[in-house]
Write a structure and sequence with these properties.
This is PiggyBac transposable element-derived protein domain-containing protein. This protein is mostly helical. It contains 3 helices and no strands. It has 2 domains: 70 residues, no CATH class; 38 residues, no CATH class. The radius of gyration is 25 Å and the shape is elongated.
Length: 118
């Protein structure tokens, strides 16, 4: 038995599941004119779409690849939200934290409870 055999077994099961899903779809919609090749392409796209969206939010992916994925999946570029965290030059070390959520609070914003928990 070779290393390829388990992979071929998986693809065989996947092909059967795809054909069964297509037959169920044809039965549910009372349509017999669904083209198998087009159905396979749409199924593959819908199965890969969540993963592609997740990849576009990854920070360690090259920008060109993100742009290509967004074009393929018709994903709009997400607007970055304004960050409430202070800029890097104000990155002071602190020992005080919010009583409820335990987020660290700097001396400038020192209080018992952070603004998000109020």
């Amino acid at each position: 038995m070779t290393e390829i055999c388990p992979l071929r077994f998986f693809y065989g099961i996947f092909d059967l599941a795809e054909i069964n899903a297509m037959v169920l779809l044809q039965t549910a919609r009372n349509q017999n004119n669904i083209v198998r090749r087009k159905y396979q392409q749409e199924l593959g796209y819908h199965l890969a779409e969540p993963h592609m969206k997740k990849r576009t939010r990854s920070n360690n992916l090259p920008r060109e690849l993100k742009v290509t994925i967004r074009k393929m999946a018709n994903i709009q570029e997400e607007e970055k939200e304004e960050d409430d965290n202070p800029p890097r030059y104000k990155d002071w070390k602190t020992k005080s934290a919010c009583v409820k959520c335990h987020i660290m609070l700097c001396a400038e914003h020192k209080c018992d409870v952070c603004p998000d928990c109020v």
